[in-house]
Write a structure and sequence with these properties.
The chain is an alpha/beta fold and about 130 residues long. It has a single domain, classed as Response regulator (Rossmann fold, 3-Layer(aba) Sandwich), CATH 3.40.50.2300. About 45% of the residues lie in helices and about 20% in strands. It has helices at about 15-25, 35-45, 65-70, 90-100, 110-120, and strands at about 5-10, 30-35, 50-55, 80-85, 105. A five-stranded parallel beta sheet has the order 2-1-3-4-5, sandwiched between helices. The longest helix is centred in the first third of the chain and has 13 residues, at about 15-25. The chain is globular and about 30 Å long. It starts with 5 loop residues before the first strand and ends in a 6-residue tail after the last helix. The relative contact order is 0.20. The mean pLDDT is about 90.
Length: about 130
């Protein structure tokens, strides 16, 4: 039996987190939520995740800095980190790539877009 893939959702907006968590559960993933970047880094140090959905604009520590710190950690360097944002302008996308993100998922997120993303990172778990 394949282990259920685990995703870390990092967003200071509870509604966005709940929506993404609901979609992930429907796709066979186990979501865990953090409401800021510092909380996310603490969870990443303590637990194993298969995917991180990371909001760019948060209090305490923004998504770009969190992603840079993930990439500096040899244990986490290969972890897929997806920018989870409402801002998809070309200049924003260039910053996302430069910060080390693997991709971009726009808010509000559709079931279809979340399914495509999940299939890319854990095809056996996603519908």
């Amino acid at each position: 039996m394949t282990q259920q893939p685990k995703a870390l959702l990092v967003d200071d907006n509870a509604l966005n987190s709940r929506l993404a968590a609901t979609l992930l559960r429907r796709l066979g993933w186990l979501p865990q939520m953090a409401d800021d970047g510092l909380h996310a880094l603490a969870l990443l140090a303590a637990e194993r995740f298969d995917l991180v959905l990371l909001d760019l604009r948060m209090p305490l520590l923004g998504g770009e800095e969190v992603c840079r710190r993930i990439r500096e950690d040899l244990r986490l360097r290969e972890l897929p980190v997806i920018a989870y944002t409402a801002h998809g302008m070309p200049e924003e996308q260039a910053r996302i790539v430069a910060a080390g993100f693997n991709g971009l998922l726009l808010k509000p997120t559709s079931f279809h877009d979340m399914r495509l993303l999940c299939q890319q990172y854990a095809p056996s778990a996603s519908l």
